[in-house]
Amino acid sequence: MMVESPILGKRKLDDEENETTTKRARTCVHEVAVPSNYTSTNNESLHGTLSNPIYNGQMAKIYPFKLDPFQEISISCLERKESVLVSAHTSAGKTAVAEYAIAMSFRDKQRVIYTSPLKALSNQKYRELSHEFNDVGLMTGDVTIMPNASCLVMTTEILRGMLYRGSELLKEVAWVIFDEIHYMKDRERGVVWEESIIFLPPEIKMVFLSATMSNATEFAQWICNIHKQPCHVVYTDFRPTPLQHYVFPVGGVGLYLVVDDNEQFREDNFLKLQDMLTKRKMGSANGKAGGRSGKGGSGSSGVSDIYKIVKMIMERKFQPVIIFSFSRRECEQHAMSMTKLDFNTEEEKEAVEQVFHSAVACLTEEDRNLPAIELMLPLLQRGIAVHHSGLLPVIKELVELLFQEGLIKALFATETFAMGLNMPAKTVVFTSVKKFDGDSHRYIGSGEYIQMSGRAGRRGKDERGICIIMINEEVKVWEGGKDWGWGVVVNVAKKPPAALGSLPAALSASRGSGYIVDTLLHCSLGSSENGSRPKPCPPRPGEKGEMHVVPVQLPLISSLSKLRISVPSDLRPLEARQSIFLAVQELEKRFPEGLPKLNPVKDMGIEDPEVVDMVNQIEELEKKLFSHPLQKSQNEHQLKCFQRKAEVNHEIQQLKSKMCDSQLQKFRDELRNRSQVLKKLGHIDADGVVQLKGRAACLIDTGDELLVTELMFNGTFNDLNHHQVAALVSCFIPGDRSEEQIQLRYELAKPLQQLQDSARRIAEIQHECKLEIKVDEYVEASVRPFLMDVIYCWSMGASFAEVIQMTDIFEGSIIRLARRLDEFLNQLKAAAHAVGETDLENKFGASSDSIRRGIMFANSLYL
């Protein structure tokens, strides 16, 4: 059952704010998923009801400010001892809810666990909570501080490990707080959150925090289903500091306000932007106006544009600014292009230098002289910094601390900076709206945009935040229901409503997405209300129109004609465009039954069997369609009934498809197949009883447990020294790929070959047991030898300056892999101990000791 109760309240503004800001309602939506036959035992006068939770008792924590409606409802849910998902914009105040859960646990003499997706975020959160509460501990793969504290901050992987081992500590835990819960969508690591939530004992209640949760209701129902307890959803779209969204066309001049701080879309500005982009494109095509074609934020034009934007921001006092790029190298290039700009005063420069020297004091003299450290100080002193996952951890943390203190005015960052602790700026700039997600270059999703743009606007400091998006291609808004007739190259036909079910909306949207066709269309002369550029729309019957170039998205094109018209090289004169309109009219007279369609096989000579087959199918279906009696019918009611029937049939087919593809059945089949794999590899016997090999695999969760236990039991590790073991085990840790050719020394090449052979054998067994797996892909994904040589030399005692010369991978990525490697070696040590392999246990211990030194394992500045 889902219950919904909207809570409305007015934003309280002081006099100064009232003069410039429109009052906006703080809207909060509350829902609750309740298991069937559930009866609440809470006192209604104290706690309210499930659908309308309130709390009239003594608060566990007093706040120095008035709570927002979403915070009040969330706290009421916590006092009811029921799980809650809080979805609110960045800087709306989700942390206040988490802090209340901690204060409540302290009051009730219970433990609470706070989990975050990254070690760096755990360190930051530990520092923040230590200032608020006394008894706070930290547990990550790198460091453990006060493991018996009442409030434990840890990574989600550590929590999962505790659940697997059945840790006694969990018996005293009342609440688990999952920060950044949307990480569950992560393709590789999402399973960690799923397993942690599923395995948590039902008596432990959960708090989920997220800025971007698109399926919050579905998530709450899932929690309710697996734990048989109510789960509340508290959602607010209220943003404490309103945002203004501007677009900056790459190579252009000026900003276009497209969404104002009252969340109103400014269509007039959007049309001006379109007009400018269209003119520039046409000018560029004619070679008259040297339009720039560099990507937003890359190439020489992109850099100069960034320079212009940053300079303009500083002149208008819109700093601090975060400039988001989706490439680490691009971040560094942009920062280095700011050589002429200096944003800090002499006093600020001295403060930066003092903090810098204090931060690097923990490093050795040799490490302090690393180029990555030495080159950073001049940049930081000018108020400019870089932040991405490839930086040395000490530099990354130093940048965060300086940014929080207001000593960094322009920060060039990747999207990881938008996660975790709230470090807002006045302005946020996007150098591009596309990112590479590991598979392809795609547009950023709305959730990603909300997360990053949420960094704009500092609560209590700025009246509004500013968000600037750099684009280098046309942005389109298409309105349906308009019959345009024939254009020169394409026909934009009237589209039936999506509800007809002839083609799912998601499918029609995905077809050819990203392609824009510039089309000469017959447009109305009418202007928009404020007299700006006419909004493209077809002329009304009898109205005179003009031909204009209108950019059209490819999915909107219904069909192509095989007829071609000669187009003048310069389309700017009206006479040139109108002559084409007359030519189109003449063609329509010559072909009264419609212009002949383009046939890919006959007219274009395409011989691909797949295409030929598809074209034949389309022709057959069109013949059936046009020969159908309903095609000639004029009975509108009959047509609507037929449409409804088609709609219902489509829904029936979808439901049948869902039943056939039932996830449960699929999981059962996969479970049976995986069980077969474990039997063949000797992890379990015929009766499903866990064997010695299986017991070792149970203690491993950082790498591929099947593959690493195979190496433990087939003697591969026995023949290697502890330096070779460290290098070989590094192949299991996911990390950055190197673009360089890998040439390994003999003492590493042979173990690598044994590892690849074992991986191939395991993949073949999985394939035999009917698991969906491609052998070569499995081997490539499981074995990552990019840093074998680096880890081997580091283990042998080489300096960090020497090992970073051996690869093109970022320093920060090397350190992150080394720390995860140390964690993995400790798991292998525990697995070897569990099966009585003392020699192996000692070897894994020695490998771990050999890499735990220097800058690779320098302490966090937050600790």
Could you explain how this protein is built, in words?
With 863 residues, this protein is α/β, with parallel strands linked by helices. The chain is built from 32 helices and 21 strands. The strands form four sheets. The protein has a ten-stranded mixed beta sheet. Helix 25 packs across helix 27 (746-768).
> Low-confidence runs (pLDDT<50, min 5 residues)?
1-25, 288-303, 474-481, 490-513, 527-531
Strand order of the largest sheet: 1-2-10-3-9-8-4-7-5-6
* Distance between the amino and carboxyl termini: 45 Å
Structural class by SSE content:
alpha/beta
The proportion of residues in beta strands is 5-15%
Helix content: 40-55%
3D shape: globular
Q: What is the count of helical runs?
A: 32
The pLDDT mean sits at: 78
Outline the biggest β-sheet: 10 strands, mixed
Estimated radius of gyration: 31 Å
Total strands: the figure is 21
